[in-house]
Design brief:
The chain contains one helix and 19 strands. The protein is of the alpha/beta class.
């Protein structure tokens, strides 16, 4: 379901794949070659949500924000299955693991990894190249070179899958 709200309508390029049962509402802007997978909910009803080129929002992810606290997601970002991102900024080439929770005011800098099931508390700053795990999330190491390679490969894989889904759905 794709719906406008409070006079704002989602902006979704033709190069994106949106699963039939995904929900995108309000002030939401997707970049080129993005994908929003099955059961995902992106609610731009209180503020804006912007997702950069080549990023993927996997199954059952929730993206939401509070008034004055938008969601900004960079390029080539993977938001893993069942994760929740609320009022946060995620820079380019980041992997947010399955079931992770990212709270208001969090800023995850480029080339970082948030481990599956981890919690980034409000206003947390994750420095570039960091690996964060746990509840609450703690930086366990900096693995910049590894993260750049693996995060890019993951995002590129989803861009290819997006292209395949778009072709299949036109049949």
């Amino acid at each position: 379901m794709i719906k406008g709200f409070r006079g704002k309508t989602p902006v979704i390029p033709e190069s994106c794949f949106i699963a039939d049962n995904a929900t995108i509402i309000g002030d939401v802007t997707l970049g080129e070659n993005c994908s929003v997978w099955f059961g995902a909910v992106i609610r731009g009803d209180e503020d804006s949500i912007v997702i950069g080129d080549g990023s993927n929002v996997q199954d059952n992810v929730i993206l939401h924000c509070d008034e004055g606290i938008p969601v900004n997601i960079g390029k080539n970002v993977t938001i893993g299955h069942g994760a929740m991102v609320h009022g946060a900024t995620i820079d380019d080439n980041v992997l947010v693991g399955m079931g992770a929770i990212i709270m208001n005011g969090t800023h995850i800098e480029e080339n970082s990894v948030i481990g599956a099931g981890s919690l980034c508390k409000e206003d947390m700053v994750v420095e570039s190249g960091s690996v964060v795990v746990g509840i609450p999330g703690k930086v366990i190491k900096n693995a910049m070179d590894y993260n750049i390679s693996m995060n890019s490969l993951n995002a590129m894989g989803y861009v290819k899958l997006t292209e395949e889904y778009i072709k299949e759905m036109k049949k």
